[in-house]
UniProtKB/TrEMBL annotation:
<feature type="compositionally biased region" description="Low complexity">
    <location>
        <begin position="110"/>
        <end position="122"/>
    </location>
</feature>
<dbReference type="InterPro" id="IPR010535">
    <property type="entry name" value="DUF1110"/>
</dbReference>
<dbReference type="Pfam" id="PF06533">
    <property type="entry name" value="DUF1110"/>
</dbReference>
<feature type="region of interest" description="Disordered">
    <location>
        <begin position="92"/>
        <end position="152"/>
    </location>
</feature>
<protein>
    <submittedName>
        <fullName>Uncharacterized protein</fullName>
    </submittedName>
</protein>
Length: 239
């Protein structure tokens, strides 16, 4: 396939595939932890409750590692794709991400320092078509460029880049949500050692239930991240 021969393209695919694999694996771990936390914890069986929480904790730890690595892989894939999109030709050397207009943010607002279309590589001209228009400065209500403005030859790359960025956000959200789950699970674990506390079983069950709810949310976020990454791969490598 011709696209696979371009510098940087193979690395984009490798990192995106790895990111999706890590997200899918993390989802499996989160489902396993959720199964542990679906069971009631009681002070009368504090040893069993602690074992239940600790087993879930191991899976949560491994899931957070996977989500962190997945987010890093998505960021790397997005950076490489931004570089690839800034090359004038498919075989041209890649530019540093810092030198690519709009590589860090999806916003493509016009800038006074934006180069003219004549001096802009073909793969970037769509980004500057709005700012180079003689009506851009005079009419602030004129529509800003969007994905629909991208030439057909590069629209899939722009969409894939946005999807990878969104996938990273969801992976980070899943990571943070697992952290919230761990805090509630730790509270439940500690309450199991307070048998003299009035109504302690209610408190334990409340914290366990909250931890379980966070896990469901985290698993869904990881699923969205994996789906966005897969969609980006389909756009970049339709074959």
């Amino acid at each position: 396939m011709a696209a696979a021969a371009a510098p940087g393209t193979a690395q984009v695919r490798e990192r995106a595939v790895e990111a999706k694999r890590l997200c899918d694996h993390a989802r499996g771990l989160l489902r396993g932890a959720a199964a542990h936390l679906a069971l009631l914890m009681r002070v009368a069986d504090a040893r069993g409750g602690r074992a239940q929480a600790e087993n879930a904790g191991v899976e949560l730890f491994n899931a957070t590692r996977g989500l962190a690595y997945a987010a890093e892989a998505m960021a790397a894939a997005a950076g490489l794709l931004a570089q690839r999109g800034a090359a004038a030709e498919p075989t041209a050397p890649l530019s540093p991400v810092a030198e690519i207009p709009g590589a860090d943010e999806p916003d493509r607002s016009p800038s006074p320092s934006t180069p003219t279309a004549a001096s802009t590589p073909p793969r970037l001209r769509w980004r500057h078509s709005y700012s180079s228009s003689p009506h851009a400065a005079a009419d602030p209500t004129a529509p800003r460029p969007s994905v629909a403005d991208i030439p057909d030859a590069h629209r899939s790359e722009r969409s894939a880049l946005d999807l990878l960025r969104e996938a990273k956000v969801y992976a980070e959200g899943a990571y943070d949500t697992v952290g919230c789950c761990c805090n509630r699970l730790l509270t439940a674990h500690e309450l199991l050692d307070r048998p003299s506390l009035p109504g302690v079983d209610c408190f334990v069950d409340y914290e366990r239930g909250a931890a379980h709810s966070y896990l469901i949310v985290a698993e869904n976020l990881a699923g969205v991240s994996a789906a966005y990454t897969y969609t980006a791969l389909c756009l970049l490598f339709p074959d």
